[in-house]
Every structure is written in C-alpha cells, then in structure tokens.
Write a structure and sequence with these properties.
This protein is mainly alpha-helical. The chain is built from 16 helices and two strands. The protein has one domain. The longest helix is centred in the N-terminal third of the chain and has 26 residues.
Length: 312
Amino acid sequence: MTPGKAYLDSDQIRVLAARSDLMGAWLVIHCWGVIALAVLGFALWSNILTFALAVMVIGSRQLGLAILMHEAAHNALFKTRWLNEFCGEWLCGRPILAELPAYRHYHLTHHRHTQTDKDPDLVLSEKFPTTKASLKRKFLRDLTGRTGFKQLVGQIALSIRLAGDHDAIDSARQDAAQAFKAPQLWKSAPVFLGIIVLMGLLGEWWYGLAFWFLPHLTWFQLVLRIRNIAEHGATEKSQNPLQNVRTTFANPLERLFIAPYWVNFHLEHHMVMHVPCWRLPRLHMALQQAGLGGRMRVSSGYRAALAEAGWK
C-alpha cells in the first residue's frame, strides 16, 4: 500500500500523480541545457573560477540525470510510456554509466523495504550518525576523485565478471554500490565516451575530459553521497514512513549545486512514489494540510541534515 493513502484521498493523489510529456521534455532539455551553458560559460570567460563552477554545475546535473532516470524508473518522467523508457535510458541513465532496468529493479526493492533489514540501501544509511572526521575523510575522497576512480574500476571489473552470467547480473542489481551503475558497462560506456568525444569536437580537445569525466569522478560523487545521507542517514530504522526518511529544505544555491529537480522532497516521494518530482512541493503542502507537519522528519537545510549525520 502507498503510505500516502493513509492520509490523502484517492482524488488528491490522482491529481498529484498526473504525468506530463511536456514537463518531462522540459526537465530533460533543462538538464542538458544547463550542462551546455556551464561549458559555454567557461569557453567565453576562461579562468579558474569559471572552470571550477562548470565542474560543480555539471556534476550536479549528472546527479540531475540520475534523478530523472529515477523518475523514469517510477514511470513518472513522461506520460507516454515509450518516451519514459527511451529518455530515461538513453538521455538520462546511460550518459552517466547507469542503466534504467537495473536501477528500477534495485530501487523498487528499496521502496518495498525502506529502512528494514531487506532494504538494499540500508548499508548506505546505517553507518550514520558518524563523526565529523569520518565525514571529512569521505568528502575528501569524493572531491579528489578517489571514490569515483575506485567505483569506476570496480564497475569495469564487475562487468567483466558478469559477462554472460544472467544470474550474477540479477544478484548485482541488489547491490547498493551499483545503484546508479550499469552492471553491464559495455552497454553504457559508448554513450559516456561519446559525450566526451563530442565535447572535444565542439570545443577544445580536452573539454570532454574536463567537463564530463572529471565532474563524474569528483563533484557527482560528493553530491551523490550528500543526497544519500540527507535522505535516510540518521533516521529511524523502522517502517514509520514519517520518520524513516527525511525531507530537506533547499535554498537556491543548494538546488543548483547539490539538490536539483526537487530531490530534497524525499519523504513526500516515499509517501506516494509515483508523483512526478515537480509536484512534490504540492504533495508536501497536502501532507501538511492533512495535519502531518509536526510528525514528518524535516531538516531546514543540508547543513542541518549533515549535522544530524555527524557534521557538528
């Protein structure tokens, strides 16, 4: 049962859950448009500041592509099914070395068993709260590329090991470390490498390495970790849908660099998982109007969410 049905009537949920092909197209175009503008900004005003900003913005939009693939996994990105599958797979998932069917298989298991022993994401959340020193080490590994490089090497090794072994592929789809990673890398690598080549052809030869590969190894890994911590880190290990997940309010800078496309409204997503991301603020208001405001786990911002996880 969708947890939100205990607090909202079917008509409310039906209105909130309505999909839109036009809005789905706008979200995909917006995400790639921001990436293009970040590269163009550096090309026009080339300096260390615009370079760093481009890497950060593109890394956050790589997370944005992951979020839009997540939308497609819930059949919420587009109203038209084939558009949902095609765009979720080829325009969102494979450009970041992910795979929509594998992610959907994994992620729906997370929804069925949130914060229980059967939750494949539990390994990501049960280590929190931790110490500030531990968080600093994790963030440093992310920003220096160590996390991204290690995971890329692991993904390559996994793909080689799984080649042709369908049972092993199904098992890998339950691995939290593979949540946004294609277990059969050879299917996604040509798209990822194609973007690197295209950026090099349209700009300087090194643009693809600097503005796709580097963000993927660094900023994308950092914001992916922060997102994971904010969503379920230091929450209840229980089946209470109001306390085993967290919504984090995000200011404009946080939405730009950390939390694109309303990903911060995570409690609402768990309440009614097929509501499109752009309607989650309205779902938040509906839950408040239903009298749940004081019962929901909500943080005032990402600094506050990280403080609950140990950044004090």
